Amino acid sequence: MQASSLQQKFIQIRSNKAFELFVIGVILLSAVLVGAKTFEQPPSVMMALKAMDLFITLFFLTEITIRFVAEEKKSQFFKNFWNVFDTLIVLVSIIPIDNSESAVIARLVRVFRVLRMISIIPELRILLVSLVKALPQLGYVMLLMFIIFYIYAAVGATFFSQINPVLWGDIALALLTLFRVMTFEDWTDVMYETMEVYPLSWIFYLTFIFLSAFAFLNMVIGIVVNVMEQEHEKARAEKLSQEGNEEPTLKDITLQLQQIQSQLASLQQDKKSDRA
Amino acid sequence: MQASSLQQKFIQIRSNKAFELFVIGVILLSAVLVGAKTFEQPPSVMMALKAMDLFITLFFLTEITIRFVAEEKKSQFFKNFWNVFDTLIVLVSIIPIDNSESAVIARLVRVFRVLRMISIIPELRILLVSLVKALPQLGYVMLLMFIIFYIYAAVGATFFSQINPVLWGDIALALLTLFRVMTFEDWTDVMYETMEVYPLSWIFYLTFIFLSAFAFLNMVIGIVVNVMEQEHEKARAEKLSQEGNEEPTLKDITLQLQQIQSQLASLQQDKKSDRA
Amino acid sequence: MQASSLQQKFIQIRSNKAFELFVIGVILLSAVLVGAKTFEQPPSVMMALKAMDLFITLFFLTEITIRFVAEEKKSQFFKNFWNVFDTLIVLVSIIPIDNSESAVIARLVRVFRVLRMISIIPELRILLVSLVKALPQLGYVMLLMFIIFYIYAAVGATFFSQINPVLWGDIALALLTLFRVMTFEDWTDVMYETMEVYPLSWIFYLTFIFLSAFAFLNMVIGIVVNVMEQEHEKARAEKLSQEGNEEPTLKDITLQLQQIQSQLASLQQDKKSDRA
Amino acid sequence: MQASSLQQKFIQIRSNKAFELFVIGVILLSAVLVGAKTFEQPPSVMMALKAMDLFITLFFLTEITIRFVAEEKKSQFFKNFWNVFDTLIVLVSIIPIDNSESAVIARLVRVFRVLRMISIIPELRILLVSLVKALPQLGYVMLLMFIIFYIYAAVGATFFSQINPVLWGDIALALLTLFRVMTFEDWTDVMYETMEVYPLSWIFYLTFIFLSAFAFLNMVIGIVVNVMEQEHEKARAEKLSQEGNEEPTLKDITLQLQQIQSQLASLQQDKKSDRA
Lengths: 276, 276, 276, 276
Hints:
By secondary structure, chain A is mainly alpha-helical. Helices cover 84% and strands 0% of the residues of chain A. Chain A is flat.
């Protein structure tokens, strides 16, 4: 009974607006802390920052505990991606740090606390989910793009590796260099270098830029068309539900007309039987 | 009675097309003056420019006074954003300039006089208002983008501050550097530098470019879809108002058909009573 | 009578498909000549090129004469923009060249002969006309953009002219520098230079990039929406003309129903008079 | 009879899902091999790679033979672009390599084996075909763009070849330089160099950037509008087929109404003949 009353109290806390705002406040503080630590700070400030860090860790631990206790079906708790995400960030934070390598990971985890901003604000969560959902639809265009990249990288690494091993040494470096060319970042420097040995190598760069730009354009159009279709679908569904309530369909009208025709037919029948 | 006649005279002046064109002319002159002063000028020309500057200040003062007097409800005058904007620019212009610091502000204010171009041309005002209105709708995407920037800046400032303090010294510098990477401005120089220490840091840059480009694309699509919807809404509203005037709805037709059916029913009824 | 027969002969030539293809061929030759002259050529080839140049000039002169004679209403000939354009290019070509300055102009004119490609291919002419027509619709956005540029250039020329007179010396140079910043061309170099004197000048660059990118985006959307609307308008007009021919409107149906109702009313009237 | 049974066996193999996956696996292996060879490898690994290369060549030869034998109408086999493509890649692979020049070609062919990825995955094939189909529709815009490029290149090569022969030496180099300017790649360096001799040459660059950006924008809009129209066309066709099955047209309703009117007319006629 005591546990149950504790659970109800925690449910109250969890759904308390002020508590939610306080959690957002602590996440913001956590973000500011992460930023503040990148500046040179006097030792006293560093001490304060560390103390606040400890407070945030403990607070997040408390908050996740409250949410876990408040959850009615414990098994559902870890089926929610965001709960697992929040729990992981808290758990990694409380692992004792011994050597410098773990310290780097610990610092990284503190950075990712900022991501809790997304898990706490519903609108951002929806936005992120819709972004992630849009990705697989682009799957085949991205595969095609990767094939283009891979072939050009293989050609580049085969022919240009002697000219500049830093840019074209192997296929991995060549892929990075081609990405650089696609962003137009000093791509002429890369080109002029190879044109000294292979004067026609501008064909390599220009065809690559055209192909990748064209594939990229198609990716963008794919997203746009996709978004538009969703909008149209929504608009159509809305229109249909409106029509269903208010407007009759043409089919309803033909049915009505058929009724009229049978009424007329019965009138004509009556007439005939009248005469007879 | 005299004040009232003065007001009417000023209303006449304000709505005079020639006066409006003259005001636009003075604003253009003011813009040219601002530009002319950035060139090296002989002292005589500088004198002329200063005289013209004084004339413009006095003219703007006169114009705002005319508009204020012509306003029927004085309290409404300062509720209009553009009136407040114009008044502020004029008022700051007539504050006597003593030291060099104020002089800089005074020069800045003269530059902003060019903005009066927007306050005087209605089309530009509408355009600006619609631009400003479009901003908040992008709020959550921009927040998400800032979170992405902040996390990458925190990671960058944590790991790369030793490598290049000018670019990654603290989180503010790191944010600026990331914006530079997003514009593809010599981003490979930034990357190659950190790759010498952390050979896998290309993952940092490539994921950042993908994430920010993807979020940016979504922002653009957001604006496009929004604009499209407004257009559709307008088109639909237009169509509805046209239909309302000219075309009957399917509902009207079913009502008409019901009338016909009841007419037929009464005919059948008559028949029956006839026979009986 | 002889003149008239000449005119008819010329009309025949003008509308001859082979003649048209030959004109296109000569224009292409003219384009190749312009290109060939930019390469180092031995004197004999240069002689040949000059001879071909003379031939092209004479051919264009002949062709324009044929088209002028073939024109039925001479006064209409010069009301056509492309006729004036073609005539001007031919006339400037035959002006004797004396000094080197005119020679430069003569060379330029020969380059513009390539533009005759547009005047001869109808599809390109239509494309160009539609491009030019799209421009004024963007008028106000471009004016707003220029105001943004002008204000930032005035501020830049005022504050940064001491730091780098080559980039910010006067408002004209500042406008060019800002265009460079807008294209992201080494814009960080420009920024880091001024940040040494004014550490907060990054605000200047970032707000400028945001404003100009936002205005540019609106310009693009403006064009897209405009193009879309034209397409919708076309589609609607098509649909209307189809409906007019094939499909009755809802109004036609209500009229038909009214006829039915009056028929029924007369039936009921007959019945009544029958009984009476 | 034996040949026929072999053919049926091969048809079975060809349509076997496991065989298809195995082919994809070998193509992937071939892609990895191409990549692996760009890295420095110890001699033993190089031997293994060569052995695998031989295996892939033989496997591809076997696979194409199976597909050829399985084809019922041999004459149709080479009418399929992808069959020709696959056969060519295999045939060039088995040509014995003697000197270094052919070796380069042989290496290139091995790279193009990766393209078999597209010929084997139907979705990629469809994507590529639709990309290729979209190109000719842009024909005239691309021609217009080339004319713009050509004229600017001719002007550039005429005036700037003395200033920097590497960039503006002849029309081919000038075209490459202008493409560089269009990608904004260090375009200000190119401009500042010519501005030292011709201070007004910024007009050349700015007009070129505006024209090419505007033409490019029109190309993009052309693609977008085209894609949209295809979508609308699909949606309309879908809607029509749905309406055809479920919904009557307005024409059907008027026909029905005409039937009713004739029924009423006959009723009135009966009435009249009744009275008479």
